[in-house]
Structure prediction request, 320 residues.
Amino acid sequence: MGLAGPLLVAVLAAISVLIFFGAFWRMARKADPVADRLREYGGLDAVGVTQTEADTGAARKRLPLVARMLTGFGMGEALAGKLSRAGLPMTAAEFAVIIMVAAGLGLLLGAWRVGLLFGLVLALLFGYAPVMYLNSSIGKRKRAFTNQLPEVLDLLVGALRAGYGLNQALDTLVDQLGPPASDEFRRVTRGVGLGLPVQQALNSLAERIDTEDVGLVVTAINVQYEMGGNLAEILSTISDTVRDRIRMKQEIRTLTAQQRFSGYVLAFLPMGMALILTLISPDYIMPLFAPGWIRVLPAFAVFLQIIGFIVISRIVDIEV
Prediction:
């Protein structure tokens, strides 16, 4: 038992060094110029290669076992799609390695301080942390793009009324806007430049952003392409509608900010304090997990916290 503590510390230090040099190698490696050029032009779909297939091919050279595992479990495509929507420049296999490393660190830390059972619980929490960050990044990117949408529509309307075609109007968005809108429309214009139909490129944009407002805009443009009509007037009307929806959503988020913060505090503060106490002084809190009926208390407490967080989230989630 005397050697267990130093051994686990040495393992943690070795893993940290490995992660550091892996990240350094990732930044310093020489990339494939052809693949980078295709990915830069957002036209992997245009040449018959999806982003998932390109990521899988690149990952198999560096992480063949992880790539095969993701493909075998059918998780690679979904994870690659989420990474694309979040705008994170990594493959699904690389993200899976981050999850496994985080879970391994949690397992070692929990087993070192308390025991194997607590290490497994900590591994689940640490492993889910990158997934939470990914989902949070997707949500932030959606909100940022939606907040830019009125400006996007105003620029489109102005360019169309000035006599520009739709492709030229999309080019002005890339030059005049900031990220994430400029990044997304750059992928659209470069895909069109490589031969992708405008409708398909815009549909891919709507799938990546996945909001009702963007879907409404893309549907209006596609219908105008097929049926004809004054696209500038249609987009001007949609711009007013989207601007009102964004204003109402911002007012709702402001009015419900205290309730949402209360939900986060009630849900995570007790569990966070219990985790910290377990790591600092295991003897203080471990009697709650002693054999017998006493184990029901922490399990029931966690159950009630989850139920309360879900109820508060449903109350403050007001659809517009």
Summary: The radius of gyration is 25 Å. Residues 116-161 form the longest helix (46 residues).
